[in-house]
Amino acid sequence: MENQETFRLPRINEPAPAFTAITTQGDINFPEDYKGKWVILFSHPADFTPVCTSEFMAFASMEEQFAEANCKLIGLSVDGLYSHIAWLRTIKEKIEYKGMKNIEVKFPLIEDITMDVASKYGMIQPGESNTKAVRAVFFIDPNSILRAMIYYPLSLGRNFKELYRALIAMQTADAFSVATPADWHPGDDVIIPTAGSCGVAKERMETKDPDVHCYDWFFCTKKLDKEKVLSTILKK
Ligand code: BEZ
Predict the structure, then answer these.
(1) Per residue, what are the HEC states of 124-139?
(2) Which domains does the chain have, with CATH numbers?
(3) Residue 181 Cβ contacting ligand 1 at under 6 Å
(4) Ligand 1 in contact with 46 (CB < 6 A)?
(5) What pLDDT, in 10s, does the model give residues 62-111?
């Protein structure tokens, strides 16, 4: 019973599992050290592997962009600290890939040889590997609540522009009490939450507000200016 509780997958809207860890940037006490910030906690299968290297270069080159959106990055694999340090040094000193070079990974990379943290976050998925973390991504909000997660297999590199889009979309949903439709980007129309009753929905359908458009009673959007979104969300 205790094992089932310890190793069950974390769920959306639950508190992010707490841990302390050694990282390439010193010890961290999570989530305590990150209160008030969004965090993307992500795992990769192994240091010195090609897909992971391409991912770290892509993510590290976007770190500043995530920081402007009040979001810190934390990586994890079940490798040890000295492997992490050697791998990140190799990336900086030797790897040039798709126009990226001299890439310094400044965010912490957790050593998790014991798999303690990986187990708490369901990153070890035996169907894929008993000894490596899958490519998991957890979005954790400033109140340390898990807001979204993705799991990818070992062979599939992640799309870091999509992670950024998802972060901005969640922050927009929080700030403006709206939802975001498929493929939304700042400047696109947003979705007004479905009206609770038929009467309210009908009233909304008949609105004269030029910024609101209803496709049917259950599907209404409104304009939300890109500048308004970005000035609310991004630190200047
Ligand atoms: C990679 O990052 O290239 C990789 C890591 C583990 C398994 C397969 C691929």
Answers:
(1) CCCCCCCCCCCEEEEE
(2) 19-158 (3.40.30.10), 177-233 (3.30.1020.10)
(3) no
(4) yes
(5) 999 999 999 999 999 999 999 999 999 999 999 999 999 999 999 999 99
